[in-house]
Amino acid sequence: MRTVLFAGNPNAGKTTLFNLVTGARAKVGNYPGITVDKTSAKLRLPSGAQCVVIDLPGSYSLTARSSEERLAIDSLLARGAGAASAVVVVVDATTLARGLYFASQILETGLPAVIALTMTDEAKKAGLEIDHAELAQRLGCPVIPLVATRGEGKAELLRALDQALERGVAPKAAPPRLDEPTSLDLAAVERELVSADLGATDTSAAKRKLRLRAEWAILSLGGDELEGVPERVRETVYARRSAAAGARRDLDAELVTARYRHVDALLAGLLSQRPTAVKSRSTRIDDVLVHPLWGLLVFAAVMFVVFQALFAWAEPLVGLIEGAVDAVKGAAKSSLPEGPFTDLVTDGIIAGVGNVVVFVPQIAILFVFITLLEDSGYLARVAFVIDRVMAKVGLNGRAFVPLLSGFACAIPAVMATRTIESRRDRLLTMLVVPLSSCSARLPVYVLMTSVVFDPEQKVGGVLAVGALVLFAMYTLSVVAALGVAFVLGRTVLKGPRPTLVLELPPYRMPRAVNIARAVASRVRRFLVDAGTVILALTIVLWALLNYPKDPVTEARFDERRAAAQTEPDEGAKAEALAALEAEQAGERLRSSAAGRVGQVFEPALEPLGFDWKIGVGLIGAFAAREVFVSTLGLVYDVSDATEETAGLHAQMREAKRADGTRVFTPLTGVALMVFFVLACQCMSTLAVVRRESASWRWPAFLFAYMTALAYVATLATYQIGRALGLGVGG
Amino acid sequence: MSSPATLADLAVGERAVIESVTAPRPLAVRLMELGLVGGTEVVVKRRAPLGDPLELELRSYALSIRREEARCVRVKRERP
Which of A302, A137, A111, A128 lies closest to A205, judged by CA? Predict the structure, then answer.
């Protein structure tokens, strides 16, 4: 089937137009090997011809430094079987010159093309009239004015696309004029490309394409991460560029300037700007929204609402999902015969599906907000307002929303790093987001505070100990995230000086259909890609925590259960059976693989003040941090433990080491909380980082550095505390 | 009389014409492709609430870059 590409600048209304043209049939996938979404849909044209439309990522030019950015050029310049049949170039009428810079490059690829001129209503309002018929004449391809939000121009666009596909002729666009010596530099690169079999000179269309490739090579190569560029081509480009520099020339500037001149010439006399004395609507909105004082207040308020939504609004939905999972589990347990298979189904598979689905409310809520902010134009202002703060640790303003969201949950937060343009900044943000103290750590803080302190006790007569501990943990989390960003940005992810180049698009009304689509595609991708990994890991972890079973112990418990059955009093019988159940669960955990690992690792945990029971809890917590509490409940033979269960508090307070001292001193409690702030105790985070970074390398690194950091910090806390005699008594 | 200046030297509201971009390579190409080429008129529209980055207006759109990047763009002040 024939392929049609949609290309254009970011914020040019490309996605709105794509949605308008394709209806609700879009499919989102990934480009092979990289983390860029590939949105495609089947389309039936008026003539009845079918084609596949692909929405390319928004871009300002064909220039590329990474394989992600290279997508556009690869798609547009592909030859043979992978080649597209036509391209729709989306150009925003309000930023015509910048849009045509990219469009003119695309036209020179020789693909049959249609220019879709979007935002024509906004242009009119700004007093801008465009002679699009004459523009079409000069560009040598149809130009269709559209108002995508109202569907105006859709029929004309489809008709033009139909004709372009049918005729299959290259646009008659002439390339920018170059003078000597620039043209000689370009010719040298062209010759090298031809000898590397990357271009031909047999037709005029082939010549234009070759010329475009040479321009691309000069502007892209050098300090790039591109693979598969022949060494000879690189050498020629470098040699030509430095020779030019030696003659006090800037080859890059000559090429870009020539193309902008070309664009300005194309537009000469086509635009009539009615002088408008009034400030544009966006400027007036910005006078408030990025005002030195009001701007900061609005920023704080918007961020508060996003955070509150993630933290509080998701809660009832999460509760509903957890209730439903428990109900399904209960139903399966009672309808299936008892045995290992039922356990696998209920505690492995059903619990695993629950572990996946439980993230959906937060992901959906966060992406409703992000799409809303992005489509309205405010997300760019968020970056604009907070960039100065983020720059101090080597991040840019776009990292703020993911980091903030991380305090609710790292899963949607890692997914939100997609709004960050540069791959390096995105990875860096992804690697520090899990240090934001997510809501799943709260039960652990609450449990430990209740066990080792009296949370109501006042320090200095004012502050409750509980509040003080929480404040300390959140501060540690913020300091760690910023500190690690600072260090990783200068070591592991060292790159060219981080910069901010951010378009501030005009404010526009977000559209419900775009938001719904964006949210649905995010959730679907999460369920398919990260969800399967989370499910598999839940089952593995379940097996580790339950197997192997010791047949002798199992038989002993069966006997004791039989004995308890003979108890005449129903109440006492139920109580005895429940106690047995809890004791057996604890026994099973101790003899399980995880239990044994905990015991083997006890020597490594001892310097942290932890015993093997805590070690087992930490392994259990890997499924989800809050599971730490119920796993500790199992080790301490307390059934249905939550962080509020008095029985668990009492058991933990009484727990003794071999030498008779208490396990849970205030110091151990604090050490454990420090560990939880810093350790990557969450397999779902690793699964979603794998999905977003498209490799296992980064989640492996994330896990390694966070575990090491947590270990060292906990060790320091415990050992220094002990040396100073802090919190060890009682 | 116009003096040699960079974008970072301009006051809010001041107009200038771009002369050249002296930034290191990948950044320079990016800025130029966004329209910061010689001869283009640019105005510093405002500063972010915390003082940095800047908001520029050129070729009828708004672009934000940090002062540090702005220092790499040589401009010629326009007489008011």
Answer: A111
CB A306 within 8 A of CB A405: yes
Q: Do A149 and A239 share a domain, yes or no?
A: no
User: Largest Cα–Cα distance in chain A?
Assistant: 106
Please indicate if any CB of chain A lies within 8 Å of the CB of B45. Answer: yes
Do A71 and A196 lie in a common domain? no
This model of the complex carries an ipTM of 0.95
The number of folded domains in chain B is: 1
Contact A480, A436 (CB under 8 A): no
The pTM of this model reads: 0.87
**For chains A and B, what is the number of CB pairs under 8 angstroms?**
131
DSSP string, A345-381: IIIIIIHHHHHHHTTHHHHHHHHHHHHHHHHHTHHHH
Q: Does B13 touch chain A (CB under 8 A)?
A: no
pLDDT of res. A275? 62
Interface test with A, best of B7, B42, B50, B63 (most A CBs within 10 A): B50
Could you tell me which residues come within 8 angstroms of residue A296 by beta carbon, excluding any fewer than 6 positions away?
A385, B49, B50
Our count of domains for chain A comes to 3
Domain residue limits at A233: 182-251
Q: What is the pLDDT of residues A203-247, one digit of tens each?
A: 888 999 999 999 999 999 987 888 888 999 999 999 999 999 999
| Partner-chain residue, chosen from A60, A223, A500, that has the shortest CB–CB distance to B66 | A500
Contacts of A384 in chain B (CB under 8 A): 48, 53, 55, 64
CATH number for position B47: 2.30.30.90
